[in-house]
Design a protein that fits this description.
Layout lengths: L1 H12 L4 H17 L3 H9 L8 E3 L2 E3 L3 E3 L20 E7 L12 E4 L4 E4 L8 H10 L10 E5 L10 H12 L5 E5 L14 H22 L6 E5 L5 H13 L4 E4 L18 E4 L3 H14 L6 E4 L5 H9 L4 E4 L1 H6 L3 H10 L7
Parallel strand pairs: 3-4, 3-13, 4-7, 7-8, 8-9, 9-10, 10-12, 12-13
Antiparallel strand pairs: 1-2, 5-6, 6-11
Helix pairs in contact: 5-6, 6-7, 7-8
The protein binds flavin mononucleotide (FMN).
């Protein structure tokens, strides 16, 4: 299967620019979704490696440890198909309260030698209201085969001092459709967004969202929605310690570590300077953030490890460092649609202590 992708499909995809190739893959998944029983049949083959137990986390059952990272399904078009590719969960978005087009094209660049991508998408999406409507057309929370995380970010037109309201309004529109929510304050492509990782902004934002979450739970008599925070790989250890203290104080459910980096490792060669770098050159950096967060929290704060996973050993290293689950994006661009299932199988059959 890897051979099929690497020798035939990938060269075909790579004749197109990166964003067009991405759009083609979305179209192919829409076709898959339209074929009767195709998704269901592939789910049965790919989703749960034989003999493995589901992973219980955030009061949810994950059929395996491998998830799709945010940024692939930016318009909530194909999320019901991700289980068929073997993903045990998927994060969709980033969605913002207001519709927006994102940054001008070209805004995605591939670097095959380095197995890397640089993107400066800037959260193009039709806005939380349209997304809520789209999500309502698909399988509801109880009827899904894999947990779906909804990633929310700040609208570009919203100034930083009213960012909190912007996130809360997105929360109100999207919470009913989310198995878990991920608060994105770490994309490098929305001016000022990463400033929300600072103590004052972050405390207000997370306290407000948790209050809103609790009020929703009481009002609807529904379970509360797990809330996670997605952090950048470019934070210093003191900054990470600060985030951890805030996460503990507001009883945050977990961390997604990490988003893309604004740094360009020299070893990766010449690259586009605008935007965030993902893929293999990010691996060691993301691993070091997961290692630090897991140790500093004594393993008490669940971490989803993400960044540069291009091989099953990379995913196993995230687990060794203390991650509970992993996510991939760029690795799938280079390894293909059979990669998530292969990764999940390797992790499930590992003899490491966490398996
Ligand atoms: C093309 C592209 C678009 C992305 N868009 C988003 C996004 O909208 N929101 C987000 O939180 N992360 C986004 N990311 C970051 C990924 O979710 C992930 O954190 C990062 O790419 C590291 O994982 P990887 O090396 O496996 O790709 C994007 C990544 C790529 C490559």
């Amino acid at each position: 299967m890897d051979f099929l992708y690497e020798k035939i499909l990938r060269p075909l995809f790579f004749t197109q620019d990166a964003e067009t190739a991405h759009e083609i893959s979305i179209r192919l998944l829409r076709i898959l979704d339209a074929i009767p029983f195709a998704v269901h049949t592939l789910e049965r083959i790919n989703l749960r490696p034989r003999h493995s137990k589901p992973i219980r986390l955030f009061d949810l059952d994950f059929p395996n440890r491998v998830g799709l990272a945010a940024g692939f399904d930016k318009y909530a078009q194909v999320w019901p198909t991700f289980g068929a590719l073997g993903f045990g969960h998927a994060e969709i978005g980033t969605f913002t309260l207001h519709p927006q087009d994102g940054n001008p094209k070209p805004r995605v660049f591939r670097y095959p030698q380095a197995e890397a991508v640089v993107n400066s998408f800037g959260f193009p999406n039709p806005g939380a209201e349209v997304i809520a409507h789209r999500l309502a057309q698909g399988p509801g929370k109880g009827a899904r085969t894999i947990p779906i995380g909804i990633n929310i970010g700040k609208s570009k037109i919203t100034p930083l001092d009213t960012a909190c309201e912007d996130y809360v309004n997105s929360f109100r529109l999207l919470a009913d459709h989310a198995d878990f929510l991920v608060i994105n304050i770490s994309s490098p492509n929305t001016p000022g967004l990463r400033e929300l990782q600072g103590r004052a902004h972050l405390t207000t934002l997370l306290e407000t969202l948790q209050r809103e979450n609790l009020q929703r739970t009481v009002r609807l008599n529904a379970p509360r929605i797990p809330i996670l925070l997605k952090i950048a790989p470019d934070l210093s250890y003191p900054q990470l310690e600060e985030i951890l203290a805030i996460a503990t104080a507001v009883a945050l459910d977990g961390i997604v570590a990490t988003n893309t980096t604004i740094e360009r490792p020299q070893t990766a060669g010449d690259m586009e300077t605008r935007g965030g770098l993902s893929g293999r050159p990010l691996l060691e950096k993301s691993l070091s953030i997961v290692r630090f967060m897991a140790r500093a929290s004594n393993g008490k704060l669940p971490i989803i490890g993400c960044g540069g996973i291009c091989h099953p050993d990379d995913a196993a290293r995230f687990m060794d460092e203390g991650a509970s689950l992993v996510q991939i994006f760029t690795g799938m661009i280079y390894r293909g649609p059979f990669f998530p299932a292969a990764l999940a199988r390797t992790l499930a059959w590992s003899h490491r202590p966490w398996a």
